[in-house]
């Protein structure tokens, strides 16, 4: 009853709106499934603007589309263009709806999604995978029995360029059996460019363990992308991650989140094997994790790396570690000492500055912002009698009120 009333009201509002209005966003995007199905099918155009639909809302979208009174017509009449016109709503299509769509159109659409997969962000990839999985299910409705199952061809370089693995190899078992050693050795990159569900990634991990029983070489580790996240801390402690480029590639956030234990282990392993932390690596490791390095590891950071890392956030580090970073930064930027640039380069590390250096800055009339001031070591600030005075009075109103 309530849904019907809401639908009535919304119909009136939406009928008055000739274009999908972003202003109606909250109203439309939080709509109950019952309201969606009760409204005029043109509601679909408004739903396209919602950043994310719930499972129940997606069901409702399918119900509306299956009624065939939409501008898209019945799913059995859809072609590639229709699927493209559906835009973000295509991501809501379920197996029932997809199985009605012409196979060729469906596959052409799957191909167009797979083609852009490797350039998509993490969230987008998850949505693409969901859709491709629904498409795979629509293409292979019943689980086949292994006896009458026709085995697809082995995965070769050519196959990789022509097929979508999750669709053409319809079970993780088939995928396992068709992955040759040679394709894993020479074309791992292309295998991993494909949209692969977690199930398929587990298969890949298993096969890689068989191909490289004593561990993958550094150059292969570099290619793992999202697969790398499936390795345990124990496994990571055995990795041959020897180059900074590999560690940097592995830490790329668009391939998914590492747990802090995994990330720490990965970095520790790299250092244990004699790797040096470079500027880009420090940037990639970032904030909290930088502070997780132990003092011995921080001691080994070459000052040039701090110099080329850009601004690092060490605000959550212990005082000892801040002191270490400060002295590294001081060495890195020594040639600029006394210039205005020097202060800006040193600013992120001033939390580790001793009273003496703070005094120099204060006496040189450096214009310090409040955040930097508050991040200074209070013990050192206390010893630097002129610091508070200089920084307060140089701004008339004082640092605290800026
Ligand atoms: C797809 O959505 C329709 C309409 O909500 C529903 O009837 C059907 O059961 C759904 N199919 C699947 C496989 O969830
Ligand atoms: C790391 O840096 C040290 C000192 O700068 C250097 O001797 C060593 O060769 C470097 N190691 C690697 C793997 O680049």
UniProtKB/TrEMBL annotation:
<keyword id="KW-0325">Glycoprotein</keyword>
<protein>
    <recommendedName>
        <fullName>Mesothelin</fullName>
    </recommendedName>
</protein>
<dbReference type="Pfam" id="PF06060">
    <property type="entry name" value="Mesothelin"/>
</dbReference>
<keyword id="KW-0472">Membrane</keyword>
<keyword id="KW-0130">Cell adhesion</keyword>
<feature type="signal peptide">
    <location>
        <begin position="1"/>
        <end position="17"/>
    </location>
</feature>
<comment type="similarity">
    <text>Belongs to the mesothelin family.</text>
</comment>
<dbReference type="GO" id="GO:0009986">
    <property type="term" value="C:cell surface"/>
</dbReference>
<keyword id="KW-0732">Signal</keyword>
<dbReference type="InterPro" id="IPR010335">
    <property type="entry name" value="Mesothelin"/>
</dbReference>
<dbReference type="GO" id="GO:0016020">
    <property type="term" value="C:membrane"/>
</dbReference>
<dbReference type="GO" id="GO:0007160">
    <property type="term" value="P:cell-matrix adhesion"/>
</dbReference>
<dbReference type="InterPro" id="IPR026664">
    <property type="entry name" value="Stereocilin-rel"/>
</dbReference>
